[in-house]
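If you are new to this repository, start here. Below is one unmodified record pulled from the training split, so you can see the exact layout before writing a loader.
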Amino acid sequence: MRTTTILVLLLLQICSVNGQTSLKEINLKNGVYNVGFKHYTTIDSTRLYRIEQDFNNQSTHRPIPISIWYPAENKGSNSKQLTVLDYLEILKEEEEWENLPNEFLLDWFPYLWNTPQNNAHLSEKVTAFSDIAFLDGTFPVIVYAASYQNSSIENFALFEFLASHGFVVISSPSRGTDTRWLEGGTTKDMETQSRDVEFLLKEIHKNESIDFDRIVLMGFSFGGLSNAITVMKNKNISAIVSLDGAERYNYPVLEKSPYFNLDRFTIPYIHFAQKDIPEEVLVSDKMSAELNHKFQLFDSLNYSNAYSYKFHDLTHSYFSSFGVLFGNRDKRQDKSDAKIMASYKLLSEHTLQFLNATLKNEENAKEFIENNLDKNGISETLISKKIKKSLESEFDYKDFFDLALLQNYQDLIPLYQKTIKKHPKLQLKEWMLNKKGQRLSLNLSKLEQSVNVFQLALHIYPKSANLYDSLALAYLYGKDYENAIFNYKKSLELDPDNQYAIDKLKELEE
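And here is the target side for that same chain:
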């Protein structure tokens, strides 16, 4: 039985009037970078999955289709400019109907709609090129969670736009725990998609072009719900973007997760919401009027700078490229095609400004997201906006060691310098660091990490004879006698009465 969330999100997409749009008319202004695109499928060997179209009822390792958009080198002779149809070929694969003839595409998938206008989209050129190399350098990354049972490429126009402005975007489809199908928007479904997002967070480490200190999560509809819980489980995320995310529509699903903890949601959050649903639609589709004003996650956050935008010309479907191009229009509530395309462009531009502010620290972008709408030249007839400032969050030594663990206790001094700027009240006491280093040193496979902790400790407490003594012992465990001798001597310079160091030094020098 489907839950309220899915009923709501499906009802929001009931349509009756054909739409007429095009990529050219959306008129997104691309940045300075060429855009490359890659798609491949890998596996998560920790989970099992059944492909229904194989008709053999056999389980296999969970397939993870992955789509990546990125700033690219100049186009080469082998590069190919993609079309919308190329993207829909990926849709067929992810829907597990890869052998479906293309002439049946718009008949087979009900959300595409077979109309002359939609057929015309198939030959439209997109911005991205295949078989084109990554541009040299490192770029911030956007990890995208798709809407309910939808494809990794559902928002391809937005992804291309962001890649042209210097971001890498990585996405995978929304699919169920055991098969392509979700259960109906349950907590189990949310946890499954969250695990897929976490898989992508690991996958990005295979790519040298990604700056792992600048990671943002973005999700549409059900993907927004999954991202919210992912943020509560992971500390290496810098910001989150919700495209009319289902955390608004079904907050209780979020609360049922064992990982639910609002105190761990401490990063900048932006939520773009659909227009108010007319009373006629609320009544006929049996939806709650609370949907027009209740934003429970936004209202509940204490330790996040949160931004809420309501787009008065967009209904739920049109927060994706698929919806703008292929969705039929609901004559009860949808605006004109021109207004839908203009608002999708505004949505894309506001997303870019938020990302430039939070990931690239651009002053103009930071001013933009803090300004009122009038100052940014935007009418309140198009968008309404709310801002909620973070309270002072308590970031303690446990949080710091969580971050240290994520990078295997490497580069701890730069991590500390970056963290103390963000959390100036953080205190890493000498005894805490000494205890952590000693525990690691007792595991011979963790000696390098132990040394790194002691070196951070000595960066903070350079006059500590005890820390030099502990570092010397770690080197001794590793049979690095030269460094052990050096650090015992340093300890004795600071504390000449350290009898233990005197004895050890005598043993080593003999």
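Two things worth knowing about this chain: The first strand starts at residue 34 and ends at 49. The chain is about 40% helix and 15% strand.
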